[in-house]
Amino acid sequence: MSQINRVLLAEPSQEHRERIKYLLELDPLFEVVAETDCGRDAISLADSLKPEVALVAVELHDMKGTQTIQEMKKMNPQMLVVLQAESADVECFFEALKSGAQGYLLKSLHPASFHEYLRSLVIEDATLPRELGYQILKQFVTENSPHGVQPKLKSRT
């Protein structure tokens, strides 16, 4: 785990890119090597720099994050890719996985959880964000219950 993982950030918000970059600079396991606000640049940077990790927003200025991920993975299939989203959206999560992402990260995640999640991906011990796991469980139970009745589920905190 001593290897430094080079990271590509693809995020339309400069403020959010700076926040992520700051968080990553606190962890010696990660080094941000490039950042962009559009998908086409992210694809080009992924091809030329071959980073180990890419954090890609759901929507970039010129294309969807999932499209960006598909193209990036064609050029660099070993790269770990995490789709960053505003909310725990089950459909978006599955679309991210289908496009080749290995993870799904909520932008609102606490900094300590952010580090823990990225580190777990790198050491191949990743888990789902709790909020997303709850949404998946809720949708699964609803779809598989008789007459579409939604049973009461309680979120654990």
From TrEMBL:
It comes from the Bacteria. The keyword Phosphoprotein applies. One of its GO terms (molecular function) is DNA binding. InterPro entries: CheY-like_superfamily, NreC/VraR/RcsB-like_REC, Sig_transdc_resp-reg_receiver, WalR-like. PROSITE patterns: RESPONSE_REGULATORY. The keyword Nucleus does not apply. Residues 6-122 form the Response regulatory domain. One of its GO terms (biological process) is phosphorelay signal transduction system. Pfam families: Response_reg (PF00072). Keywords: DNA-binding, Phosphoprotein, Transcription, Transcription regulation. PANTHER family: TWO-COMPONENT RESPONSE REGULATOR (PTHR43214:SF43). This is Response regulatory domain-containing protein.
